[in-house]
Amino acid sequence: MDTIIPPEEKEDYLLNPVYLPPCEEKSKSKAQPVLTVIGIIFLFLLSAFILFIFVKPHIDMPKYLTTKGFSFSSLLQLSSPVNASALIQVEESIIKAKIDRRQYKGIELGNGIKAVIISDPDSSVGSAAVDIKVGTLADPLEMQGLAHFCEHMVFLESKEYPNLNEMQDKVSKSSGLTNAFTTLLDTNFFFQVSSGAFEETLDIFSHFFIDPIFTEKLMKDEVASVDSEYHRDINNDGWRLRLLFETLANPKSSLAKFSIGSIDSLITKPQSNGVDIVKTLRKFYDCHYSANSMTLAIVDNRPLEELEELTIKTFSKIPNKNVKLPDYSKEVMPFSEGYGNKLVQFIPNDPVRVLALIFNVESESEHPFLEAYEYLAEIISDIGNGSLYDVLSKKGLAHNLAAVKFVEAEPFDLFCIQVVLSDK
Ligand SMILES: [Zn+2]
To answer: What pTM did the predictor assign?
Structure first.
């Protein structure tokens, strides 16, 4: 049995050395082919235009191009000033269930945002979600909880909509909901409102990613809000287990950080170490919140074409900073190299007795559709005759048994077998 270091003590030694992830630009090599394609399209349109001017009396140009395998309407769409930079890829062959009446389309905007738009004729509400490819693993050591804090800050005010409660008011008036959450690898924002209020709410929502405002006053208020979440959840066993994991992980791992955030980790300690908290927040936002790191999903009862137009109009304004997406694949496994093989006794607040066997397993990223751990989880969780649960239950030792892979982020994949024990 190991002594558990309380999170507060752990943070002290984690603060050394001071580390801030560099704001790396994505390699330009990937942008090059896109520019080349745009160049070729431009040259093609120019030649087509010259050809059209000189040969027009003899050839019906749209018909000519159509017979040659080109869709003139799509060429016109690409050549129009709004759409030339607004839409670079379309995916219409999305697989769906036969009984699903909704229509789907995948598009990639010129600024790099990938979006799935869904037209649901039966829906009376419209909703949207934006996912940013950054989570708590990207927290800098000198300002832990920053990804969560940044999520709070983004969802407040924008230059276009500077009233603090604009989004909340809009959502409440249309009996909707809105929220956001931060995981290890992602930050997700979403809302749902009545269909009539959808377009206006979508515009307010998009401006959180176009021109958010980070003032010192707002920061102080919002740190207090993060801190109150931390104190509210401090007795929740789920949160306590999360803190336990972060505390036990190899300090070389990005998991070994205090991810929730508090006044202490976001203001007091950073300031005492000379960290400019406004600059650090701004830098985190600039390094990670970019159109090329965002994915969008939109559902409403409008026709697909209308939703596509709305998506382009609203989200093309989000700047693409070509940021490099975080990559943790080369990191150490958090519970290897002397940080595994531990028996930890945890006293829960809830009156339950649980035995949890947790394995830091190899990633399945090379075989994403194999889902070997899913099969393993199914076999272990089986409750039929002769199963593990059946044996333990007949001996009066267990009330429940489940197996699950509960963290899916290379190299942080954790597989857990959990047995709810009886008093015996
Ligand atoms: Zn929060």
So the answer is: 0.75
